[in-house]
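Annotators were shown the component list below and the corresponding predicted structure, then asked to write short factual statements about the assembly.
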Amino acid sequence: MKKILIITAVFILGAAGVGFYLSQKPVPSVNDLKTDFTVTATDLFAEYQANEEAANQKYNGKIVEVSGVVKETKNNEAGQPTVVLESGDPMFGVICELKEKEQASKFSNGQQVMLKGECTGYLMDVVLARCVEK
Amino acid sequence: MFSLIALVFALNGLHAQKYFTREGKISFHSSAVVENIEAHNTSATSVVDTETGNLEFAVLIKAFQFEKALMQEHFNENYLESDKFPKATFKGALVNKADVNFAKDGTYKAKVKGNMTLHGVTNPVATTAVFVVKSGVISTSSEFNIAVADYKIEIPSLVKDNIAKEVQVVVKADLQQLKS
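Structure shown to annotators:
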C-alpha cells in the first residue's frame, strides 16, 4: 500500500513538474521550428495581393523562409529592428521583424538575403515576426 | 483598410495632409490574481488625416509577442481565434479637431471616438489621446481599457483568475507625411 502511495506521489509530482515546465516555456526560436514554406518575397506579396483570404489560410501562423532583396532596414535604437524586402510593388513590401539578437545593421540595401520567420498576415505589407537570417 | 490607403496614396499630390506609419506599437496588459499577461505588437499601421481629423489603426493579431509560448498559443487559438479573425482595426476621428493644430509644433490633448473591430465584433470606443507635433512627425499615444466580454472573447472558467475582465491597451505611434 505504501509503495503504491509513493509511486503515485512521484508520478503526480512528475506530471506537475512537466506541466509547470510547459506553462513557463518561452516562445521558441524560429530556428528550432520546421519551415513550412520557402518562397520569394515577390511571390509571397503577390499571393496576398491577389487573394488575401486564401493567402491568410495558407501562410498565417506558418514558418516561412523568404528570399529577396533588401529595400530598407531599421535599427534597434529606433525600436524593433526590421528588414523590408522588395516585392515588386513600388510602395509596399515584405516586412521582416528581426529577433532581438539579429542586427538590422548587418544587412545593406540591395543585398540578396534569406530570412526565416513566422508569417503574421497582411496589412499593407506582408509582416513576418521573429525573423532570423538563414 | 487597403482601399483607404490606396486612395490616400492616389490623392497624395492634392492633399499632403495624411500621416502614416507601419510600425505603430500596441501593447496590452492584464493584471489578474494568478498572473499578469502582457503582449507587444510593433507592426501596427496607422493613418491620420490632419485635414479631416480621421484616423485609423490596423494590427495583425498573430504579430503580438508574448513571453510564454503557451500564452501566445492560447491567445491566438482559443481567445482571439486569429485564424478566423487575423486583424483588429480602429476607425475613428478626433472629436475636438479645432483644439489640435497639426501645423504647429506642440503637445495637444485630444478626444477620439470611433469603432473598434476585434474578434469579428465591432464596438464603439471613446478615449483620449495625446498628439505631439514636432519637426513634421506626429507622435500619438493613448491608453484605454477594453472589456474582454464585449468582443465575445471567451475565457474558460478554469483560467478566469488568470485573465482580467478588462484589459489595458497602450498605443504609441510616430507618423510621418507620405513621401511623394
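Statements collected:
1. Chain A has a mean pLDDT of 93.
2. Chain A has three helices and six strands.
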